[in-house]
Every structure is written in C-alpha cells, then in structure tokens.
Amino acid sequence: MFKNIGRIGIEMYLLFQHHTTLEILRNVNNDQDLFTITGTGWHFVKYLGPSVVVVGPDTRSERNPHQVMAGPTYQGLFPKVALLPPSVQHCIWMVPVPVVYPRLESVEHLASTMATGKKAVTGTFNMLGKVTSSVAGVVGAKSVVGDGFNSVKKAVGKSGLMSGILSPFGEIDVLDELRDQWTHESKDLERTYLVRTLQGIAHNKSLRMTFLSGDVNCCGAGLVHDPSRLQDHKTMYQIISSSVVNSPPSSYVLRLLHNNKPLYVPANGHRSTHTPTDTKEEMMEIFTQDVNGQPREMKRLMGRRNYVACVIYDPEIVNGTFGQAVPGHGGGKLSIAVDFMVQNENLYGAPMKYGPVIIPSLEYGR
Fold first, then answer.
1. Which end of the chain is more exposed for a tag (fewer CB within 10 A), N or C?
2. Residues 6 or more apart in contact with residue 144 via CB below 8 angstroms
3. Neighbours of 169 (CB within 10 A)
4. Given a cut of 90, is residue 164 above it in pLDDT?
5. What integer pLDDT is reported at residue 176 of this predicted model?
6. What range does the record give for the signal peptide (predicted)?
C-alpha cells in the first residue's frame, strides 16, 4: 500500500511541480530539465542568468529514518556543481528543510520520554488484557473483558490522553517532525558531509553557497562561518521562509528555538559536539521589532506568515560614488539581497519588510 502511495505521490509531484511525467523524462537524453542519478529521485540544476545557479536535490524520494539522500546521489550531484562554468558566482541549494537551524533537544527528550511511556502503557495493558482474558475465558466472559481493555487503551491512545500528539500511525508526531530535520542526530554525519564538501567546492571554485529552505512555519536567516576569517569559503548562508498557507509555531516553541547554546560543524566523519571548530553555526538577529513597532525579545525567528524577495545586484554599480549609481562601470562581482516580507497584523495591509540580508560573492582564493 505504502509503495503505491509513494508512486502516486511522485507522479503528482512531477506533474504539478515540474509539469512533466516519468514517461517524458525517461525519453530525455540530457540534464537540462530533471535528471535522476540512482533511478530514485529527480533533481535539477537551473541557471538564473550566467552568474547564479539553483540546485534542487530531491530530498524526499530516498529519505528514511537514517538518511536524507543516498551516498551515490551525492557522488552524482557534487561533480555537477564542481564543474559549473567560471561565470557562476552563487550556487543556491533549494532544500525543503533548513540545513542551518536551532536545535530542539529538550523537546526531543520530552517526546522520547512520552514515546517510551506510551509503549510501556500499551505493553502493560496488552499483558494484563491477555492474562485477564485468559482467566475470564474459563467463566465465559473473555470477549467482555477484552473489549474493556481495548477501551482503556484507546483512552490513552489517539482518541484519548494522547490525542493531538500521536500521528495517524500511533507514533509521536513531534518525534516524526524532529527526525525530518537535517539537525537531528540521525542525520548528523550526513549533514556534516554535505556542509564540508560544499565548503571544499566553494574554495576550489570561488563559489558562494547558500541554502534556501522552508517547512518550519517561520522565517529567519542563519549562516555557518569561520569567526576568524569572515566571508571566506566556509561562510554559507541559510535563508528560511515559511509557506504562506501554514500556521506559525507557538511562542513556546519559538522560545525554545532561541537558545544560546553554541553550535559548531565538526570535521567530516565526526559527530557534532559543542567543541569549537573552524566553522560556527549561528542565526542572525534581524527581527528586532514586531510588525506593530514593538521591540521583540526573540530576534532570530519570526512566527508569522511570510515570503522572501531576492535581488541580484552589483554592489559597485549600486553604491557608485557617494551613493550615485554608475551604469556599466561595475566590478562584475554580484551580491544577493534578501528581504523578508512578513504578514502585518492587518491581514489585508501591506507586509512588513525586514532586511536586507546581504549575501556577497566569494573573492578568488578565499
């Protein structure tokens, strides 16, 4: 059943997101549209002019509890980026779930405890039900006792004390969400491999890497960088913009996400610890005021519906001499300005603009 659901899901994704079908793709002999590496998952590399490339890896088709993408997929994607023409200055990775994002370790511990408790309660009721039903069978009341224990289990399960917490499959919903994150411990080594490999390609190609993500129902900007060498190849930005149709997370969850625990990207092949390395991970404090002008305590993430507006520009042309633009006299190095457009308190009013977050190009040799 689940294989058929997945197959239909892929067909609908290709049809409505990419306006194509499997039959069409299998008869295409080039990678100009979508391409597959392992036969599972469809990826794309698109040019936004000669200087900006958008890479869209399929991070769903090969996903399981222990990986986002399979090893051969990375080995097929990375060379395509490493062989981009010299004119490309920015490589934007469109990954649905943020690669750079605060941790929710306390929530995971709580959810794991709840999951353990649920299993213990369910197991206890199952055992008691079997014993009592067996005894009751002697006196002819087995079905009555069995129905009674089923009712008690339901009260603790999806329709009772655990309602709103369990997924339709009886698992803890929060745990499902956390396992889906790049920052979950089950994806830790893979995430480090992705970040460190892209840092290496960025250094060799003088190519600025940026992640563009959503799926967390809020907006914000983060980065990984070397604090001692600002804007070198280790600096990669993370832009997060939520879908405009989803409700934002609660203020309690946002507060948990605004923790000050220092985060670092370890060396390849090592698990994340809080030991300092040459790559620090941070969220930027860009939401200093709310849409009504009131100062905000939580400045890194905004829990309102939003979208981002991105502009590619030449800083030398825009700045010019004393702020005067000089058309045709730029240096050719492009930056990206990202503005966050956040829904105002008046649903029909103009959105509030936050930013811009400036993503500079990478200087040669840095």
1. N
2. 136
3. 8
4. no
5. 63
6. none
Rounded CA gap, 6 and 309, in Å? 33
Q: Is 256 exposed, middle or buried (0-12, 13-18, 19+ CB in 10 A)?
A: middle
Give the integer Cα–Cα distance in Å for 276 and 273. 8
| DSSP state at residue 49 | S
Write down the pLDDT at residue 141: 54
End-to-end CA distance of the chain: 51
**323 strand-pairing partners:** none
Question: One-letter amino acid identity for 221?
Answer: A
Backbone phi and psi for residue 6, each to the nearest 5 degrees, phi listed first: -65, -40
Please count the residues of the chain.
366
- Where is 341: in which H helix or E strand? strand 335-342
Residue indicated by tokens 């197959």:
7
Residues 6+ apart with CB under 8 A from 334: 51, 52, 89, 90, 312, 313, 314, 361
- pLDDT of 277 reads 96
Using CA atoms, how far residue 159 sits from 117, 163, 165, 324, in Å, is 17, 5, 10, 65
Strand 90-94 relative to strand 219-225: parallel, antiparallel, unpaired?
Answer: unpaired
- Tokens 């194509």 appear where? 20
Give the H or E element holding residue 280.
Answer: strand 280-283
Mean pLDDT of 12-34: 85
How many C-beta neighbours within 10 Å does residue 75 have?
11
Where do we find the tokens 């490339």? 53
Calculate the average pLDDT of the chain. 82
Q: How far apart are CA 94 and CA 91, in angstroms?
A: 10
| Rounded distance between C-alpha atoms, residue 193 and residue 99, angstroms | 12
Range with the lowest mean pLDDT among 71-75, 78-82, 93-97, 115-119? 115-119
- Do the beta carbons of residue 46 and residue 53 sit within 8 Å? yes
Residue 70 has pLDDT above 50, yes or no: yes
pLDDT given at position 159: 40
Per-residue pLDDT of 103-114, as tens digits, reads: 876 555 555 565
Q: Is the peptide bond before 262 cis (omega within 30 degrees of 0)?
A: no
pLDDT digits (tens, 9 = 90+) for 128-159: 445 444 544 555 555 544 454 444 333 333 34
Asked whether 237 and 225 are in contact (CB, 8 A), the reply is no
